[in-house]
Amino acid sequence: NAGVMQNPRHLVRRRGQEARLRCSPMKGHSHVYWYRQLPEEGLKFMVYLQKENIIDESGMPKERFSAEFPKEGPSILRIQQVVRGDSAAYFCASSRESGTGRISGNTIYFGEGSWLTVV
Amino acid sequence: GENVEQHPSTLSVQEGDSAVIKCTYSDSASNYFPWYKQELGKGPQLIIDIRSNVGEKKDQRIAVTLNKTAKHFSLHITETQPEDSAVYFCAASEAGGTSYGKLTFGQGTILTVHP
């Protein structure tokens, strides 16, 4: 999973500030996923993106959270007006394009995470 | 949507013993089942995965079994070592074809291997 690069690894924000988390997928991967892990809990899906497209954002909170994966550059998860409950580890993952008509690909590799602390 | 249940939540074994972690899933459309190991302060690391067209897969000391009829799958670690101590997560998704790999995770198992 060393191929999925996330930064910053640790981020401290005061309540009301904005947090921006960046993710560069593994080389050759065009699918990016963001997951959130609250303290002592499992990982929860937030959003799935391909280049310039949001495919599934069913796990994203309706307000304050947004994600993008531009044509050039890393994927960005943006949290506006952070609150203490946003404190968590945010993991980015990536996978290759899946084949059509058969079960293949879609092995998902995770980055080392970005730990957000809201004070 | 998919729901994945994982047991036990904690597991303590002696070095050299075997460890078994079990998961059940609810969505019969799920066809991809990976297992991840997460060490403190790090990201999940894929250790083994299985797809629904096979019932068992083995990689050295690690094996995974899948029973699609009963909707459960298990991780088996033999000859455990202290460095196996970590949190283990199972997951399920409907992958391949025109679908994609959105994972639903279990709650995790804290495995402790005592020297």
Structure description:
The complex is a heterodimer of chains A (119) and B (115). Chain A has 119 residues and is mainly beta. Helices cover 0% and strands 47% of the residues of chain A. In chain A, strands 2, 4, 5, 6, 9, 10 and 11 form a seven-stranded mixed sheet that branches. Chain A is globular and about 40 Å long. Chain B has strands at 4-7, 10-14, 19-25, 32-38, 45-51, 56-59, 62-67, 72-77, 86-92, 104-105, 109-114. Chain B contains no helices and eleven strands. With 115 residues, chain B is an all-beta fold. In chain B, strand 4 and strand 5 form a beta hairpin. Chain B is 0% helix and 53% strand. Chain B is globular. In chain B, the strands form two sheets. In chain B, strands 2, 4, 5, 9, 10 and 11 form a six-stranded mixed sheet that branches. A five-stranded antiparallel sheet of chain B has the order 1-3-8-7-6, with no helix packed on it. Chains A and B meet through strand 4, strand 5 and strand 10 of A and strand 4, strand 5 and strand 10 of B.
Which percent band covers the strand fraction of chain B?
over 45%
pLDDT average of chain A, as an integer?
Answer: 89
Indicate the radius of gyration of chain A in whole angstroms: 14 Å
Q: Whole-number radius of gyration of chain B? A: 14 Å
The number of helical segments of chain A is 0
**Spans where pLDDT lies below 50 across 5 or more residues of chain B:** none
H/E series of chain A, N to C? EEEEEEEEEEE
The helix content of chain A is under 10%
Low-confidence stretches of chain A: 99-104
Helix content of chain B: under 10%
Which H/E pattern describes the elements of chain B? EEEEEEEEEEE
Summed over residues and divided by their number, the pLDDT of chain B gives a mean of 92
State the end-to-end CA separation of chain A.
30 Å
- Structure summary, number of beta strands of chain A: 11
Give the DSSP E fraction of chain A (strand runs of 2 or more residues): over 45%
Helix count of chain B, per DSSP?
0
The termini of chain B sit apart by: 41 Å
How is the biggest beta sheet of chain A arranged?
7 strands, mixed
Shape descriptor of chain A reads globular
